[in-house]
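Take a sample.
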Amino acid sequence: MKTIVHKADTRGFANHGWLQANHSFSFAGWFNPERIHFGALRVLNDDTIAPKMGFGTHPHDNMEIITIPLKGVLKHRDNMHNDWQQVLPGEVQVMSAGTGVQHSEINGSVDEYLSLFQIWIIPEKQGVSPRYDQKEFKPEDRKGKLQTLVSSFNDADDGSLKIYQDTRLSRIDLDENETFTYNPKSNNHGVYVMTISGNINIEGHILETRDALGVSDTKEFTIQAKNNSELLFIEVPMITL
């Protein structure tokens, strides 16, 4: 089993006043040659956005973009929709940028900060037609068990959002001392485990809130929660750039 530890305080950080951004991988003004990607996972940003602020209209292409609000109200608008789309905690948003899309993202609250993860996955297909989707996922459905949020169009799971990559994003909430064994799809897949909150032990690696561990070259690994913990798994093919 191969592992790579990314402690929370080793991430790139940018303070833009209205935006506090933590970058797990090289992004914008932060560059670390040893942290460009983890397989097909290119970006994992942990952002906090001030009330009424956000990102103005900007372009993307040939990228699978997944947004997971954790607190607050996200509002999204793109050139596929005339109206603002509201995305709340408990919901997940996916966007296939494909041949090109223009979009805006703002904090839809006038008094509450917005906290979210934004994830970019390198697609297996280039030049697809842009598409957008979102879905609600109930917290009770990930209590002690894996809740799949996002998977490939080729995956038979019909309860998850779909993207153009052989990927599986999932969450689980574990109680103190509870254990869970994760089984990657194949030996060609790796799993990037982000500790949303809590304190866990993965095969001897102790992770606290916002610490992450990349795991590859294994058929399984076991997690023990040292206290109540919320985890995000990003399973991707271990492609090279």
Notes: The mean pLDDT is 97. The CA atoms of residues 62 and 98 lie 4 Å apart.
